[in-house]
UniProtKB/TrEMBL annotation:
The lineage of its organism: Bacteria, Pseudomonadati, Pseudomonadota, Gammaproteobacteria, Enterobacterales. This is Serine hydrolase. The keyword Signal does not apply. The keyword Hydrolase applies. Coiled coil: none annotated. Transmembrane segments: none annotated. It comes from the Bacteria. Pfam families: Beta-lactamase. Keywords: Hydrolase.
Length: 393
């Protein structure tokens, strides 16, 4: 993800405190250049206050404007929720992180030697060696069709086909993080096997219920505001559909619901982000959310935590998730040191998803610049700063 190459923008924010102006600089060009019909940016400030900046429309025939309460499909941001459900259940000793598929799946499930060794933690951290998806003839045909129609190409993925795939799975020698949709589909299946509960129930019991996320769920038609939801549009993908054209909603089989089927809005995601940075009053949930942010596979770019990725951006560490689906792009990022967060939701499929990283980077650099003022008062880069505490507005 592209970030600011210098501290110039962060120092500008330190001088002005105008977070809205920074968001406008990044967001408005996407609307004016018709990269997306609608865009919502939510910001959690260091003092716990939130700001929501909305641009454009939902795509509804009446041209309804997007807001912080507008529902979006968030695709793989769903995986963070699934990973944290798993973390909570591990803390209840229902699972162990080092359990393997040999004990996690039903007795006598045909598994290759490599598949038998895959652990629960490897599924959660994308270090199992499983690929992004199974490129069967049926799946490949679905991908080609998607390029022309925007239709969901995961309809062919079910539990039977996945188990068949595991019987012949051969792991790569390098088990560094390798993004895997089917790994999270498998995780969804394992959770249901061990708990006897569907992922919708597990989400409500463990995350959305305790945090009162009333506009977040897998059954989108049941959520408030569904009729006014953002509609997906072609962007960078599907390749052979004109940018800005509406594309179909994606509906998933049971295997992929937990991995990619979530709908939510910016307001709920800011509450969710806040829960990772401040106590919720639920000790078990707090422990699980903090543990999910812990890096399990360290590297400077795209280090792996439980459903989250961690990047070093200059002097800042950004913990984040991204999602791309049908006609949507989504981002949620945290700066745990400064207790800030950013949410970005678009109703267009755009690989360029840099707003969140840049806003977090600028806030972090602005805060650090203010904190360093006394020690660097003779430094020319600090000459326009003052002793007042930094307040974003």
């Amino acid at each position: 993800m592209k970030t600011d190459p210098t501290r110039e923008q962060g120092l500008r924010l330190a001088r002005t405190g105008d977070i809205g102006a920074e968001v406008n600089r990044l967001a408005l060009p996407l609307i004016l250049q018709k990269q997306t019909p609608g865009l919502v940016v939510g910001v959690l400030l260091p003092d716990g206050q939130t700001r929501v900046y909305s641009y454009g429309v939902t795509g509804e025939p009446d041209g309804g404007k997007v807001t912080g309460s507008t529902l979006f499909a968030v695709a793989s941001v769903s995986k963070g929720f699934l990973a944290e459900i798993t973390t909570l259940i591990v803390q209840k000793n229902v699972f162990q992180w080092n359990e393997t598929l040999e004990t996690l799946l039903p007795l006598n499930t045909p598994l290759s030697r490599d598949a038998r060794k895959i652990t629960l933690l490897q599924l959660v951290t994308h270090t199992s060696g499983l690929p992004r998806q199974m490129m069967t003839t049926e799946m490949l045909g679905g991908v080609v069709q998607y390029l022309f129609t925007g239709d969901n190409f995961y309809h062919a993925l079910d539990r039977h086909s996945l188990v068949d795939y595991l019987a012949d799975f051969s792991a790569p020698q390098d088990l560094s993080p390798r993004y895997s949709n089917i790994g999270y589909g498998l995780l969804d299946y394992i959770l249901e096997l061990r708990t006897g509960k569907k992922v919708e129930t597990l989400l409500a019991e463990n995350i959305t219920g305790p945090l009162k996320l009333t506009h977040t769920g897998y059954q989108a038609p049941m959520l408030p505001g569904y009729a006014q939801r953002a509609l997906g549009h072609a962007g960078d993908q599907p390749k052979f559909i004109r940018r800005g054209s509406q594309v179909p909603d994606w509906h998933f089989s049971s295997l992929m619901i937990g991995a990619a089927g979530l709908y939510t809005n910016a307001d709920d995601l800011l509450t969710y982000a806040n829960a990772h940075l401040y106590p919720t009053g639920d000790r078990a949930l707090d422990n699980a959310l903090r543990d999910s942010l812990r890096v399990r596979y360290a590297r400077s770019s795209e280090a792996a935590a439980n459903g989250w990725i961690v990047d070093e951006v200059g002097n800042q560490n950004i913990t984040y998730q991204v999602g791309f689906i049908g006609g949507f792009s989504s981002y949620i990022g945290l700066d745990t040191r400064h207790k800030t967060a950013v949410v970005v939701l678009q109703n267009s499929f755009n690989w360029t998803n840099n707003i969140g990283h840049k806003v977090l980077q600028r806030m972090g650099e602005a805060i650090d610049s203010k904190n360093d003022y006394d020690k660097n008062s003779d430094d020319v880069t600090h000459k326009s700063l003052n002793h007042e505490a930094l307040h974003f507005h």
